[in-house]
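About this split. The held-out portion is used to measure sequence recovery: a designer receives only the structure tokens and must propose an amino acid at every position. Recovery is the fraction of positions where the proposal matches the reference. Here is one held-out target exactly as it appears in the evaluation file.
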């Protein structure tokens, strides 16, 4: 693999690494023996890609990204856990992404078309969906699950084992210690729900009926005075006839920590 003309001669690439011939690698980058990298990926200088890491096609890694790091978990004892990254993601300067741990599935998963800005951190055993934006310094603790189209503002921190539903959004500096339902916008330390993500729904082409259904679901959760279980029951019934509410059903099935209020 070191003979690939697109790999800078000052990069250190283990001969056992499986790298598509179209991958570009900058100087002073190191790539370990258990790494697989798909076509048309660009890796700038001074990156470190290690661990049992599989990277799809068309990804971009800017300088000082550390991908496939060992988990920052004292229970980790060197097990061959994994990191799996999809296609067409962008990881900016000094982003860190850890492999999984044996105490969970053993795999950290990042989907496709994600935008991970400088100094963001994705910890062990996280599951990140597609079209997610993590702004500068956003931090995911271990075992966090993010749905598709989630946006976390700069310096947001998410507590371990939290679930954040699809299309949810957190303002900069939010501290999220409970699960955040789909479409809900939160902000603050500790984060509280502010509204539902109407503008995001418009941009993503939701129907008028879908937006009205999400608004009704939001009111059931946050404005009706119903207990959580009662609101969940009503939203579940509504979801039988409105596809936009399916994300709520997936969220309710995973949510274990109570919701951001």
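Reference sequence for scoring:
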């Amino acid at each position: 693999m070191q003979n690939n003309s697109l790999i800078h001669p000052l990069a250190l690439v283990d001969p056992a690494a499986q790298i598509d011939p179209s991958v570009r690698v900058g100087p002073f980058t190191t790539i370990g023996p258990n790494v697989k990298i798909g076509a048309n990926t660009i890796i700038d200088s001074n990156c470190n890609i290690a661990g049992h890491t599989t990277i799809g096609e068309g990804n971009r890694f800017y300088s000082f990204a550390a991908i496939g790091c060992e988990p920052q978990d004292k229970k980790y004892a060197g097990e061959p856990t994994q990191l799996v990254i999809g296609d067409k993601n962008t990881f900016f300067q000094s982003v860190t992404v850890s492999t999984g741990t044996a105490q969970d599935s053993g795999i950290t998963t990042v989907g496709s078309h994600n935008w991970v800005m400088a100094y963001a951190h994705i910890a062990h055993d996280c599951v990140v969906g597609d079209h997610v934006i993590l702004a500068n310094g956003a931090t995911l603790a271990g075992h966090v699950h993010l749905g598709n189209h989630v946006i976390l503002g700069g310096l947001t921190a998410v507590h371990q084992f939290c679930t954040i539903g699809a299309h949810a959004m957190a303002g900069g500096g939010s501290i999220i210690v409970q699960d955040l339902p789909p479409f809900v916008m939160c902000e603050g330390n500790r984060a509280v729900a502010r509204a539902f993500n109407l503008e995001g729904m418009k941009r993503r082409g939701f129907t008028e009926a879908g937006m009205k259904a999400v608004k009704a679901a939001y009111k059931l959760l946050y404005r009706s005075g119903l207990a959580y279980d009662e609101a969940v029951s009503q939203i579940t019934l509504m979801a039988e006839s409105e596809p936009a509410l399916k994300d709520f059903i997936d969220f309710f099935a995973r949510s274990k920590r109570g919701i951001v209020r």
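Annotator remark: The first strand starts at residue 12 and ends at 13.
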